[in-house]
Write a structure and sequence with these properties.
The protein contains four helices and two strands, in the order ββαααα. By secondary structure, it is mainly alpha-helical. α1 packs across α4, α2 (57-78) crosses α3 (93-113) and α3 runs antiparallel to α4.
Amino acid sequence: MASTSGGVRVGHRVTRGWRRPGRRRLIQAAADAAAWAAALGLAVALGSELEPVRADVDGLVAMIPIAAAAQVAAGLGAGLYLGRWRFGSFDEVPGLVRSVVAATAGLLVAHVALPGLPHPPPSVPVGAGLAALVIMAGVRYGWRMVGE
């Protein structure tokens, strides 16, 4: 057997510590990005007291891709989409929490650093972060229940 010099053996290939996410992991990342979109929509709606006239739709549209990109980057950094844990397992929860906290922080930084974009109030990213965590955990719990 050939030496892998610290790499991970994947089939006949040897990688050097990083594995490309497979299709299932990409679907999980897309589901988490969709959870952020739903959470931001909920936070904007609740922030405008459910009045469509007062809702900051432009701010919502500007924040969704930023939140999705922040979640995917933070999730990759936390190992969420690299297959480190089984989807929906209790071992995955700390990584999920770390990635959502980092994505929320990234969203708040973008909120301050990009003044040219329309932004909802600063409470929206924080509330959306909490809602996104609940939605993501709920999806994972549902997946776990279906699998058992």
